Task: inverse folding
């Protein structure tokens, strides 16, 4: 056969799509720093350091630093496990897609329901707590300003509108805003910790003593640390819009935890120098302890409120992309898969709004203080997210086995991470039940119910077992360059 005849011979079809299943979403818009900023914003390191970070030594007692190491150590294993998935394919569904790759559609859709519930709880908490911090800042800086429920409600609505405005502008604009907010909050955290060390002195090695340490308190403290990191993996939802997703997403997951852990340990050590008769840290007066008015503390509260707003916006963006992904797969209504001119799935963003409003509505229905209800919802939602974490961790070994890349190290890390996530979920659930709270069980039931409803919707597509749930981004025909035909007689595999 002549070379001309070989060139004219039709090439075998590789069956590449003409368009991506996620066509229309913004591509290659953000870099590694933007994805890192998303993960850091969800961890809210400034608030956790100035809150639980400073309080942990008093709550746990001797061995508090072991609680911190155990808590962040478990989250590090989870981050490494999720990074194994994120380094092999690109998607917007985060844990839902991860579980689909390992266990198939049935567990994946239940995990998708869990993420809707858990992410929604965190969004509501972030918006509510941000509103409370803005209100507290006004009281600290302008004590004579009229306050009350109307002012808090007005601030809450303003926070919701601010999130919608930022997300409408596009992912690049949103991520840069988040990056700026976190940069300012970290500077403020450094100033506050420096002020404390100049007031109370530097920590000593005796703070690390284990004399009188309680293993039970240490383990409970570790579980509490884990609950502070919930939704850190949501940065994986930006994979479609990231320049180098297979590198940047795992990198952001790991390094955001290093940032948060380092600042949390630093706050732990600084807290050991505070005398027992010092004013409570929960008074939120770092520069003027015991004073009702403090402009400096008001500014800190403003920064913390903005950080909480960034938390809500980042998780909101992640949940919207999960709905977008489910819609493009045919699991949810197709209108949720629409994108606007900025490449943003804004229809899905708007669909999340009722979840953001669930906290004030739930507080009014139950007659509970809005701040207390938001915190309880976050804690109960944390149980649901920890169950999703465990499912994704246990899915990794099977996924690696299916693609013939199984090895002992990631499988062992995933197993340990899954067991740890289950332990945290059980610990939090038992604590809630002991306190007479059944909200976590209700949210778990709601997650399972949402998963069941989605399963019923897609059963008409042949059978559920044959449905391809958990799609990932793949090359399209226009992006593939086929090489020249091999020489005559040479063996070539296509």
Result:
């Amino acid at each position: 056969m002549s070379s001309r005849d070989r060139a004219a011979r039709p090439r075998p079809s590789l069956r590449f799509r003409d368009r991506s299943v996620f066509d229309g979403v913004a591509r290659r818009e953000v870099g590694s720093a933007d994805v890192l900023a998303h993960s850091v914003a969800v961890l809210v390191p400034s608030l956790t350091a100035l809150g639980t970070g400073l309080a942990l030594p008093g709550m746990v007692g001797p061995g508090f630093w072991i609680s911190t190491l155990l808590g962040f150590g478990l989250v590090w294993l989870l981050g490494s496990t999720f990074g194994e998935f994120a380094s092999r394919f690109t998607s917007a569904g985060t844990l839902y897609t991860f579980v689909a790759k390992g266990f198939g559609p049935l567990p994946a859709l239940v995990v998708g329901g869990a993420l809707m519930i858990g992410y929604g709880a965190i969004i509501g908490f972030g918006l509510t707590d941000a509103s409370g911090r803005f209100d507290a800042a006004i009281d600290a800086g302008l004590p004579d300003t009229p306050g009350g429920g109307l002012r808090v409600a007005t601030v809450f609505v303003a926070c919701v509108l601010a999130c919608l405005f930022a997300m409408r502008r596009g992912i690049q604009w949103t991520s840069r805003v988040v990056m700026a907010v976190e940069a300012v909050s970290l500077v403020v955290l450094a100033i506050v910790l420096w002020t404390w060390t100049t007031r109370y002195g530097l920590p000593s090695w005796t703070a690390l003593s284990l004399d009188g340490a309680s293993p039970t308190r240490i383990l409970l403290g570790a579980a509490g640390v884990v609950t502070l990191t919930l939704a850190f993996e949501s940065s994986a939802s930006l994979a479609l819009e990231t320049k180098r997703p297979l590198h940047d997403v795992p990198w952001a997951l790991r390094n955001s935890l290093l940032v948060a852990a380092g600042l949390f340990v630093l706050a732990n050590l600084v807290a050991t120098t505070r005398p027992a008769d010092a004013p409570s840290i929960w008074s939120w007066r770092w520069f003027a302890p015991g004073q009702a008015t403090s402009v400096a503390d008001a500014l800190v509260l403003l920064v913390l409120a903005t950080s909480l707003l960034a938390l809500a916006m980042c998780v909101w963006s992640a949940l919207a992309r999960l709905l977008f992904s489910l819609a493009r797969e045919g699991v949810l209504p197709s209108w949720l898969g629409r994108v606007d001119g900025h490449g943003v799935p804004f229809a899905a963003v708007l669909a999340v709004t009722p979840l953001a409003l669930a906290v004030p509505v739930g507080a009014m229905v139950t007659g509970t203080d809005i701040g207390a209800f938001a915190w309880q919802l976050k804690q109960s939602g944390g149980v649901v997210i920890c169950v999703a974490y465990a499912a994704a961790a246990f899915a990794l070994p099977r996924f690696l086995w299916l693609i013939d890349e199984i090895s002992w190290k990631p499988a062992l890390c995933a197993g340990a991470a899954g067991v740890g996530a289950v332990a945290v979920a059980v610990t939090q659930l038992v604590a809630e039940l002991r306190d007479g709270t059944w909200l976590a069980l209700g949210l778990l039931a709601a997650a399972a119910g949402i998963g069941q409803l989605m399963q019923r919707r897609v059963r008409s597509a042949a059978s559920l077992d044959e449905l391809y749930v958990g799609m990932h981004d793949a090359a399209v025909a226009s992006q593939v360059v086929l090489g020249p035909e091999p020489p005559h007689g040479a063996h070539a595999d296509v």
Summary: Residues 1-14 have pLDDT under 50 and may be disordered. The radius of gyration is 24 Å. The domain at 25-459 is CATH 1.20.1740.10 (Amino acid/polyamine transporter I).
